[in-house]
């Protein structure tokens, strides 16, 4: 999966060999139990008892409408369908980890008497508190005392993860989606093998009304069975009186019905308006991470790989797609036809299954006997050529690079009109946002860069993720870190003209910034709840994962060693599941110099954060010390973390060519090496390929500053950008005075390369925005003068004509967006003129792609042009351009328009709801809107988490953009108050911790540096 904002990014073996199925003490224990397993006290305490009572037998004791409604709304957080009755919701959510038991506190009168007597006997309030929850600790759980209704069996499983005694082998799915009524029926036949003796089968199902269930053991007769359901964990179960024996095979058939989802996950409906103004509907799937269970009952964990045979019934005027090629189409007697797809030729995790019903048109091409197709809605067909070409080249590259051919016969890439993530790597049927796949012939190289990198990312997943899959979501980085790394690596080779290096460098800087927070987490980290699974889709899994792979590759001797290691890994674990150690072991095995990759890399994946390396020098002796670079710490934080750091360095003797690079491994707290005494300066972390920050001490920084002031080209542009990034980070940490930051930046008027300029602008803009929002007017004015003075000549040099080089486009758009954002007259005049020309020509004259944003931003500031831009937005078909218009519209400083656009984004008609995170983050950048946005988020929180799951990347973006602008105690209190009031609706999210920490840091930085700024700016 590609998170949206970053886009700028068989082989079945005997499964018993797979270690994860061998070690399962809990399962064996439970299976021995002759009755139902005792509930683990910890787990019981973890969940309120009320939720346990939601267990019910199928067909009997069905709840009445109200109860049902109430119960459904108590769905796992963010897992949709939470919009029913808010009155019910607030009382019925079982997701309150800390909430006291509720249902059990409604005992019958008799029990009350017993209780009172009991209390009298014990005569101690403390003891009462101790014993009240006691009923949960019985073997059978907490039962209703009403003798007149049959006692329901308790749900036979008490954990978030499924038991491993049963393994699915194959699924046979038949689906009947009804796009007129937005619902579907389905039938799922699951063949399974028993791995350990057991009396139960537990699997996932969410929001499905199961109407019939039959079970067949080995060659026996199929018979009806009762399905138990435990909705809070989205699990269903069968209980057997006789043990199923290891080695037996069985078949479970489930018929069910459900509504198509109206959020962005599961089997969801989507619509768009075609060029003739007609509303078109379609249904598509997004299963990663936990939503396959919303389309069919299944063992919905990545390690339960199986084969899939999929059949979809449809009206003749729709078409369908799935992971595999279509095998046949059969007419049905109700006027519908059935498309049957070939059975998957590989074992596959459930989150990679996909199917789509709608109207799409393909362009296709054969690449090494694989049919590659790009699908779009019919009217956007002419925007698919670039994607087809890029996908074909990248597929060839990966086939060759991994030395394993793509294992399926076809590969479809499809642009879905309403899609939340950037893209999703479903095996053989990759789904994309339109902006991530479609580019016009006229599109700028920057837009092509976006499309090519998302394709490169998703194609890499066909090996990393699909062929070899992480065993559990705690190692999500094995999928995402790798795909992110491969996306940059492959593009440097396959499409070098896209200049992807600058983007990868910027991505590594942002990953460091996030990982410097105490609220960050280790790359591999425990994951035990749905929102923790969602939260793994963050910059640590993606960008830090990619960064440490780059560091590893750069530190291995010989350029093919890394590649050999990953080929070894892919071949060894093809079709299987792995954890992080499997990867490091494969890389260690191929190491020519017996480098212990495991030893080095586990220090980077098993602890959060990264090291600060401090350099001190005495004559020829250089001492390096390492410590955890932690912006804020609480008392509980371990400060003794050590990393195994492959430190690289260059010096004024030799600083540019790769041969200049020296390597020193720092494993301990400090280490020393020698350099000739004549060396004037050292630059560590050559080209910023390592994941650490360097402090050179006053003398070291002064020497580097002087060297740069003399001649910028003594260092590579990556090294210059890395100095700028590092010194700002050190200022935030409090190690370097802001005066030193400004001193280093004095060289910048001589800078011409993209990455140092964009990094400096980004850092200065951040401070500018904080000052602006604190209403430090005189400092804001001085900061503006400072930026225009230091970057003015470079800004003035920029042209407004077409520009072919991606790197120059990046430089130009960053400079001009800043200039126009600061109301630089030169800039705004040019932008206005271009907009006028564009409107006068009826949108036929072209604004260069990289300048569209700045032009639309300027237009949106004018009361006259904003409605014109809105009108253009309403009619634009090309999605990339449309998004820039939207960003422009949201950058208005008119309060009424801001409120309107926020509401429109939530409503989802004129502005698709998938764009709401973008709207919010744009509004928050401006002075006029950031408080409105914060109010808006508080007022509409429940509707937001209905659309975007708690913990998801979209919610992370929304929280971060709304709160990262705050720097006062009052705002800190407000943010804290709001999120803690949410309780189960989001208070536990890591992004909330991150937000609070960021506000504290902003506050601290301001208190410390306002005076310096007043003096030196
Ligand atoms: Zn991905």
Sheet with the most strands: spatial strand order = 6-5-9-3-2-12-15-14
Bound molecules: zinc ion
Overall pLDDT metric = 85
Poorly predicted parts? 5-108, 119-151
Whole-number radius of gyration?
A: 30 Å
Report strand %: 15-25%
Q: Which bin fits the share of residues in helices?
A: 40-55%
How far apart are the termini?
44 Å
Indicate the structural class: alpha+beta
Subcellular location: Endomembrane system
Transmembrane segments: 112-132
Active site: 458
Membrane topology: Single-pass type II membrane protein
Report on this structure.
The chain is 41% helix and 18% strand. It is α+β, with helices and mostly antiparallel strands and 1017 residues long. The protein starts with 24 loop residues before the first helix and ends with a helix. α17 (697-710) runs parallel beside α19 (738-745) and α20 runs parallel beside α22. It has 33 helices and 30 strands. The strands form eight sheets. The chain has an eight-stranded mixed β-sheet with strand order 6-5-9-3-2-12-15-14, with no helix packed on it. Strands 17-18-19-21-20 form a five-stranded mixed β-sheet, with helices on one face. A four-stranded antiparallel β-sheet has the order 1-7-8-4, covered by helices on one side. The chain binds zinc ion (ZN).
């Amino acid at each position: 999966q590609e998170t949206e904002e970053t886009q700028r990014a068989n082989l079945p073996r005997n499964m018993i060999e797979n270690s994860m199925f061998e070690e399962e003490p809990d399962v064996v224990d439970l299976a021995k139990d002759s009755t139902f397993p005792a509930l683990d006290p910890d787990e019981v305490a973890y969940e309120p008892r009320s939720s346990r009572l939601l267990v019910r037998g199928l067909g009997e004791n069905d709840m009445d409408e109200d109860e049902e409604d109430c119960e459904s709304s108590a769905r796992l957080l963010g897992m949709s369908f939470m919009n029913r009755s808010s009155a019910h919701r607030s009382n019925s959510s079982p997701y309150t980890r800390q909430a006291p038991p509720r249902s059990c506190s409604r005992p019958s009168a008799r029990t009350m008497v017993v209780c009172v007597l009991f209390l009298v006997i014990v005569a101690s309030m403390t003891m009462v508190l101790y014993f009240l929850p006691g009923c949960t600790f019985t073997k059978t759980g907490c039962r209703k005392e009403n003798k007149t209704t049959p006692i329901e069996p308790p749900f036979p499983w008490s954990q978030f993860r499924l038991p491993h005694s049963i393994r699915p082998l194959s699924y046979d799915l038949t689906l009947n989606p009804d796009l007129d009524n937005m619902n579907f029926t389905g039938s799922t036949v699951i063949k399974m093998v028993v791995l350990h003796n057991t009396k139960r089968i537990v699997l996932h199902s969410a929001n499905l009304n199961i109407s019939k269930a039959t079970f067949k053991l080995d060659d026996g007769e199929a018979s009806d069975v009762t399905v138990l359901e435990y909705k809070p964990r989205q699990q269903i179960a069968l209980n057997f009186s006789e043990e199923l024996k290891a080695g037996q095979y069985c078949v479970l058939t489930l018929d069910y019905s459900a509504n198509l989802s109206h959020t962005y996950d599961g089997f969801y409906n989507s619509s768009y308006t075609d060029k003739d103004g007609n509303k078109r509907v379609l249904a598509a799937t997004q299963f990663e991470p936990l939503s396959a269970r919303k389309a069919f009952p299944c063992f919905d964990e990545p390690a339960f790989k199986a084969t899939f045979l999929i059949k979809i019934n449809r009206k003749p005027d729709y078409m369908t797609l799935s992971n595999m090629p279509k095998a046949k189409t059969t007419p049905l007697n109700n006027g519908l036809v059935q498309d049957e797809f070939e059975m998957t030729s590989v074992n596959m995790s459930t989150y990679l299954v996909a199917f789509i019903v709608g109207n799409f048109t393909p362009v296709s091409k054969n690449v090494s006997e694989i049919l590659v197709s790009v699908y779009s809605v019919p009217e956007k067909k002419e925007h698919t050529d670039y994607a087809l070409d890029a996908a074909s080249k990248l597929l060839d590259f990966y086939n060759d690079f991994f030395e394993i051919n793509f294992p399926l016969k076809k590969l479809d890439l499809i642009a879905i009109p309403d899609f939340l993530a950037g893209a999703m790597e479903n095996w053989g049927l990759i789904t994309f946002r339109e902006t991530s796949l479609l580019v016009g012939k006229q599109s700028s190289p920057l837009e092509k860069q976006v499309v090519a990198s998302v394709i490169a990312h998703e194609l890499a997943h066909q090996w990393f993720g699909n062929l070899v899959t992480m065993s559990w979501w705690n190692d999500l980085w094995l999928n995402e870190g790798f795909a992110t790394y491969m996306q940059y690596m492959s593009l440097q080779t396959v499409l070098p003209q896209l200049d992807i290096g600058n983007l990868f460098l910027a991505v590594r800087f942002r990953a460091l910034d996030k990982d410097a927070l105490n609220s960050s987490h280790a790359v591999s980290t425990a994951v035990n709840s749905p929102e923790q699974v969602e939260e793994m889709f963050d910059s640590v899994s993606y960008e830090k994962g990619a960064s440490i792979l780059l560091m590893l590759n750069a530190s291995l001797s010989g350029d093919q060693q890394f590649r050999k290691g990953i080929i070894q890994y892919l071949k060894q674990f093809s079709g299987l599941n792995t954890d992080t150690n499997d990867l490091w072991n494969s890389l260690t095995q191929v190491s020519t110099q017996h480098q212990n990759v495991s030893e080095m890399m586990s220090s980077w994946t098993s602890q959060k954060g990264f090291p600060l390396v401090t350099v001190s020098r005495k004559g020829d002796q250089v001492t390096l010390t390492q410590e955890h670079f932690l912006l804020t710490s609480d008392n509980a934080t371990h400060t003794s973390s050590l990393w195994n750091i492959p430190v690289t360095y260059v010096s004024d003797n030799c600083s540019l060519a790769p041969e200049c690079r020296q390597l020193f491994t720092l494993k301990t707290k400090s280490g020393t090496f020698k350099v000739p005494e004549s060396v004037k300066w050292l630059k560590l972390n050559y080209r910023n390929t390592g994941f650490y920050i360097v402090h050179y001490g006053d003398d070291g920084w002064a020497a580097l500053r002087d060297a740069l002031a003399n001649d910028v080209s003594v260092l590579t542009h990556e090294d210059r950008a890395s100095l700028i990034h590092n010194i700002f980070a050190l200022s935030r940490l409090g190690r370097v005075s802001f005066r030193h930051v400004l001193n280093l930046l004095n060289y910048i008027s001589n800078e011409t390369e993209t990455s140092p300029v964009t990094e400096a602008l980004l850092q200065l803009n951040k401070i500018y925005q904080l000052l602006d929002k604190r209403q430090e007017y005189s400092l804001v004015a001085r900061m503006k003068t400072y930026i225009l003075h230091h970057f003015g000549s470079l800004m003035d040099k920029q042209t407004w004509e077409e520009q072919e080089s991606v790197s120059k486009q990046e430089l130009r758009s960053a400079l001009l967006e800043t200039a126009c954002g600061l109301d630089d007259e030169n800039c705004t005049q040019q932008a206005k003129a271009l907009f006028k020309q564009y409107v006068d020509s009826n949108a036929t004259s072209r604004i260069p792609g990289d300048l569209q944003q700045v032009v639309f931003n300027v237009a949106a500031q004018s009361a006259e042009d904003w409605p014109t831009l809105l009108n253009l937005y309403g009619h634009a078909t090309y999605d990339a351009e449309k998004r820039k218009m939207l960003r422009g519209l949201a950058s208005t400083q008119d309060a009424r328009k801001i409120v309107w656009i926020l509401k429109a984004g939530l409503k989802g008609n004129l502005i698709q709801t998938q764009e709401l995170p973008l709207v919010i983050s744009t509004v928050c950048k401006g002075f006029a809107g950031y408080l409105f946005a914060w109010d808006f988020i508080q007022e509409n929180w429940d509707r937001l988490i209905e659309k975007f799951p708690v913990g998801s990347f979209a919610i992370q973006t929304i929280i971060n953009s709304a709160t990262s602008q705050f720097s006062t105690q009052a705002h800190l209190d407000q943010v804290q108050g709001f999120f803690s009031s949410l309780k189960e609706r989001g208070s536990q999210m890591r992004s909330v911790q991150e937000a609070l920490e960021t506000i504290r840091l902003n506050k601290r930085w301001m208190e410390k540096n306002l005076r310096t700024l007043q003096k030196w700016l």
